[in-house]
Amino acid sequence: METMLKDWKLLKTGQLVGDFEGFNESKIYELTDGSFYYQTEDKFHHCEMPDPVLKIYTDGTKQILVPEGLNDYTEIQETTAFRCKVMNDFRGWSGDTIFELENGEWWKQDQYEFKYFYSYRPSVVIAKVGDCHILHVNGRNIRVKRLK
Protein backbone atom coordinates (compact mmCIF):
# COMPACT_ATOMS: atom_id res chain seq x y z
CA MET A 1 0.00 0.00 0.00
CA GLU A 2 2.84 2.42 0.82
CA THR A 3 4.28 2.00 -2.69
CA MET A 4 0.88 2.76 -4.23
CA LEU A 5 0.52 5.90 -2.07
CA LYS A 6 3.93 7.42 -2.96
CA ASP A 7 2.33 9.58 -5.69
CA TRP A 8 -0.57 10.66 -3.46
CA LYS A 9 -0.70 13.65 -1.09
CA LEU A 10 -2.15 13.19 2.41
CA LEU A 11 -5.03 15.66 2.83
CA LYS A 12 -6.40 14.70 6.21
CA THR A 13 -6.15 12.23 9.04
CA GLY A 14 -9.31 11.80 11.10
CA GLN A 15 -11.29 9.54 13.39
CA LEU A 16 -14.39 7.75 12.10
CA VAL A 17 -17.60 8.18 14.11
CA GLY A 18 -18.39 4.61 15.19
CA ASP A 19 -16.93 1.38 13.92
CA PHE A 20 -15.65 0.74 10.41
CA GLU A 21 -17.60 -2.04 8.68
CA GLY A 22 -15.76 -1.96 5.38
CA PHE A 23 -16.40 -0.47 1.98
CA ASN A 24 -19.80 -0.70 0.36
CA GLU A 25 -21.26 1.10 -2.65
CA SER A 26 -22.66 4.54 -1.72
CA LYS A 27 -21.50 4.34 1.91
CA ILE A 28 -21.33 7.54 3.95
CA TYR A 29 -18.35 8.04 6.27
CA GLU A 30 -18.66 10.59 9.10
CA LEU A 31 -15.53 11.89 10.82
CA THR A 32 -15.42 13.27 14.36
CA ASP A 33 -14.49 16.73 13.00
CA GLY A 34 -17.98 16.95 11.44
CA SER A 35 -16.93 16.21 7.86
CA PHE A 36 -18.74 13.65 5.69
CA TYR A 37 -17.48 11.60 2.75
CA TYR A 38 -19.43 9.59 0.19
CA GLN A 39 -18.01 6.43 -1.40
CA THR A 40 -18.11 6.97 -5.17
CA GLU A 41 -16.58 3.65 -6.16
CA ASP A 42 -18.68 0.50 -6.62
CA LYS A 43 -16.49 -1.53 -4.26
CA PHE A 44 -17.24 -3.98 -1.47
CA HIS A 45 -14.81 -5.09 1.23
CA HIS A 46 -16.23 -6.32 4.53
CA CYS A 47 -13.96 -5.65 7.49
CA GLU A 48 -14.80 -4.70 11.05
CA MET A 49 -12.49 -2.29 12.88
CA PRO A 50 -13.42 -0.42 16.08
CA ASP A 51 -12.87 3.36 15.96
CA PRO A 52 -10.28 3.43 13.18
CA VAL A 53 -8.14 6.35 12.08
CA LEU A 54 -8.87 7.24 8.45
CA LYS A 55 -6.45 8.86 6.05
CA ILE A 56 -7.64 10.80 3.03
CA TYR A 57 -5.30 11.22 0.07
CA THR A 58 -5.50 12.97 -3.31
CA ASP A 59 -3.64 12.60 -6.58
CA GLY A 60 -4.93 15.99 -7.73
CA THR A 61 -8.03 14.65 -9.47
CA LYS A 62 -9.63 12.20 -7.05
CA GLN A 63 -9.63 11.38 -3.36
CA ILE A 64 -9.26 8.04 -1.63
CA LEU A 65 -9.99 6.90 1.91
CA VAL A 66 -7.54 4.50 3.61
CA PRO A 67 -8.36 3.08 7.05
CA GLU A 68 -5.20 2.74 9.14
CA GLY A 69 -4.26 -0.95 9.39
CA LEU A 70 -6.17 -2.00 6.25
CA ASN A 71 -4.29 -2.68 3.03
CA ASP A 72 -7.12 -1.35 0.84
CA TYR A 73 -8.83 1.92 -0.12
CA THR A 74 -11.89 3.32 -1.85
CA GLU A 75 -12.59 6.44 -3.89
CA ILE A 76 -14.59 9.12 -2.07
CA GLN A 77 -15.79 12.69 -2.35
CA GLU A 78 -16.49 15.15 0.46
CA THR A 79 -20.14 16.06 0.80
CA THR A 80 -22.48 18.16 2.91
CA ALA A 81 -24.62 16.19 5.33
CA PHE A 82 -26.32 16.27 8.71
CA ARG A 83 -27.28 13.76 11.38
CA CYS A 84 -30.74 13.63 12.97
CA LYS A 85 -33.09 11.11 14.62
CA VAL A 86 -36.25 9.66 13.08
CA MET A 87 -39.30 10.65 15.15
CA ASN A 88 -41.01 7.26 15.42
CA ASP A 89 -40.44 3.56 15.00
CA PHE A 90 -38.47 2.89 11.85
CA ARG A 91 -39.39 -0.06 9.64
CA GLY A 92 -37.20 0.49 6.59
CA TRP A 93 -38.80 1.62 3.34
CA SER A 94 -41.44 0.30 0.96
CA GLY A 95 -41.58 2.42 -2.20
CA ASP A 96 -43.05 5.73 -1.02
CA THR A 97 -42.01 5.88 2.63
CA ILE A 98 -41.98 9.27 4.39
CA PHE A 99 -39.41 9.91 7.10
CA GLU A 100 -40.25 12.47 9.80
CA LEU A 101 -37.12 13.79 11.51
CA GLU A 102 -36.63 15.27 14.97
CA ASN A 103 -35.59 18.64 13.44
CA GLY A 104 -39.06 19.03 11.84
CA GLU A 105 -38.00 18.06 8.31
CA TRP A 106 -39.89 15.45 6.31
CA TRP A 107 -38.15 13.40 3.62
CA LYS A 108 -39.69 10.95 1.14
CA GLN A 109 -38.16 7.90 -0.50
CA ASP A 110 -37.20 8.87 -4.08
CA GLN A 111 -36.29 5.50 -5.58
CA TYR A 112 -38.33 2.34 -5.64
CA GLU A 113 -36.95 -0.24 -3.28
CA PHE A 114 -38.32 -2.39 -0.48
CA LYS A 115 -36.18 -3.06 2.57
CA TYR A 116 -37.54 -4.02 5.98
CA PHE A 117 -35.56 -3.61 9.19
CA TYR A 118 -36.78 -2.33 12.53
CA SER A 119 -35.13 0.29 14.68
CA TYR A 120 -36.55 2.58 17.36
CA ARG A 121 -35.88 6.25 16.55
CA PRO A 122 -32.58 5.60 14.78
CA SER A 123 -30.05 8.29 13.98
CA VAL A 124 -29.87 8.91 10.22
CA VAL A 125 -27.51 10.88 8.01
CA ILE A 126 -28.88 12.83 5.05
CA ALA A 127 -26.10 13.58 2.56
CA LYS A 128 -26.11 15.65 -0.63
CA VAL A 129 -24.64 13.57 -3.44
CA GLY A 130 -24.59 15.20 -6.86
CA ASP A 131 -28.10 16.51 -7.50
CA CYS A 132 -29.85 14.18 -5.05
CA HIS A 133 -29.90 13.31 -1.33
CA ILE A 134 -29.12 9.97 0.30
CA LEU A 135 -30.57 8.84 3.63
CA HIS A 136 -28.12 6.55 5.44
CA VAL A 137 -29.36 4.45 8.36
CA ASN A 138 -27.90 1.34 10.00
CA GLY A 139 -25.49 0.76 7.11
CA ARG A 140 -28.17 1.06 4.42
CA ASN A 141 -28.90 3.87 1.93
CA ILE A 142 -31.92 5.11 0.02
CA ARG A 143 -32.30 8.16 -2.24
CA VAL A 144 -34.73 10.72 -0.75
CA LYS A 145 -36.23 14.14 -1.50
CA ARG A 146 -37.23 16.79 1.00
CA LEU A 147 -40.95 17.46 1.46
CA LYS A 148 -40.86 19.94 4.37
Automatic annotation (TrEMBL):
What protein name does the entry list?
Answer: Uncharacterized protein
The beginning of the lineage is: Bacteria, Pseudomonadati, Bacteroidota, Flavobacteriia, Flavobacteriales
